[in-house]
Amino acid sequence: MKSTSETGHAINVANFNELITAVTALGATYAPAKASLKLASLNAISTAGANSLNEVISKKNAYNNAVNARMQSFSKMRPLATRVLAALHTTDANFELLKDAKTINRKIQGRRAVDIAPVAEGAAAPKSISASQLSYDQLIQHFTTLVNLIETVPSYQPAENDLKLDTQQTYISELNSLNSQVSAAYIAIGNERIARNTILYKTLVGLVDIALSVKLYVKSVFGSNSPQYKGINKIAFRTIA
Q1: Residue 241 falls inside a structural domain
Q2: What angle do CA 126, 139, 128 make, to 5 degrees?
Q3: I need a surface site. Which of 52, 68, 86, 174 has the fewest CB within 10 A?
C-alpha cells in the first residue's frame, strides 16, 4: 500500500515543475525582484527537491536490504541452537550445565524476533524499530550465553564445521553486525526525511512556500481574475507533516 504522505511529497515536486513551466510561458512579464522567485532559483529548488526524494528512496532500499539480510541470518539460529544442544549432550558436560543449556535454548526457541517488514514501494519508513531491536538484541544475548556456556566444556569438539565454537563466534559477530546495520539504515532514513522536509516545507524558503509566493507574485502582476493567475493558482501544493 502506498503512503499518502510519501506520494504527496512527489506530487508537490511534480506540481512545482508544472508551476515553473507555467511562469516560464509568461516570458518577460514574469520578472520578480525577489531572488528566490526568479526562474534560476525555482529550477534549483526543483532539482534539490527531486534529489531529496531520490535520496529517501535510496536510503529506504538500503534499509530493506539490511532488514532482509538480518532476517535471513537470524532464521538460522533456532535450528542451529538445537543442533548445538544435541552435540553438547554427547560430551561429558555435567547435569547442571546441560540443564542451564536447555533453559537458554528454550529462550531462543520461544522468543520470536519482532521484525519490521521491508518497506513497500511508495510506503513511508517505519516510525519506530525499538521493539524489533530489543527482540533481536535479546536473541543475540541468549545465543551468546549458550556459546559461552559450551566453551567451558573441553570435550565439546564436534567434527561438523558449523557446530564448532569458532564458527559460532563468527556467527555471533555476523548477527551483531547485521543488527547494527539495520539500526544505522533506519537512522539514515530518518535523517534523509528531515533533509527532504527542510527542502520542501521549511517556512518561507521551502518549495511549497516558494510556490505560494510565486502565485502571489503572478496575482499582483495580472490580477486575481486573470487567466494567467487562475491557471497557476489551480496548481495544488500542500504541506505534509
Answers
A1: no
A2: 15
A3: 86
In a domain, 146, yes or no: yes
Which grid cell sits at 36?
528566490
Task: Determine the Cα–Cα distance for residues 19 and 131; give it in Å rounded to an integer.
Answer: 44
Residues 6+ apart with CB under 8 A from 214: 19, 23, 32, 37, 42, 232
- Determine, yes or no, domain membership for 192: yes
Tell me whether residue 203 is in a domain: yes
Residue 88 is part of which domain span? 4-233
Is the pTM of the predicted complex or chain greater than 0.90? no
pLDDT in tens, the chain (241 residues): 355 567 899 999 999 999 999 999 999 999 999 999 999 999 999 999 999 999 999 999 999 999 999 999 999 999 999 999 999 999 999 999 999 999 999 999 985 555 555 555 455 555 555 555 668 999 999 999 999 999 999 999 999 999 999 999 999 999 999 999 999 999 999 999 999 999 999 999 999 999 999 999 999 999 999 999 999 999 999 999 7
